Amino acid sequence: MKRIMLIGRTSAGKTSFCQVLHHHEIKYKKTQAIEIIDNAIDTPGEYVENRALYRALVVTAADADVVILVQDCTDPQCFFAPNISGMFNRPTIGLATKIDLVQNEEEVLQAMAKLELAGCEKVFKISSTQNIGVDEVRKYLGIAE
After folding, report:
1. Which InterPro entries match (predicted)?
2. pTM of the model
3. Which CATH number is 89's domain given?
4. How far apart are CA 34 and CA 52, in angstroms?
5. What average pLDDT score do residues 97-109 get?
């Protein structure tokens, strides 16, 4: 099983995705420090929101097999620099989250474009609360049902 590391802005859906990925009950909680949830490394949103904390992401990525960048489809802002994935030296995929909350498909396409610009090799559209697209990510990561 691959160890993953999730990176994204505060409230992007990293912790919820970890919970649903591992069949845990979804309970919102603010991630205050790096947490390990089964095979996932869940990082606080502040780590990508503050460039001074980038080195913590780089060091933590050394323990991951795959880095996952998480972009909320309902959030017009993006904190991922173009090709940010290059600094991790790991395969990087993207999650366009909260697809069930968008007003129109254009928001999903914009989130996906942001993740592609950040250097994601593959981008998945998901909704953790509706369990949409999660099985596809599990299959890609080699996580058994």
Report:
1. EutP_PduV (IPR012381), P-loop_NTPase (IPR027417)
2. 0.95
3. 3.40.50.300
4. 16
5. 97
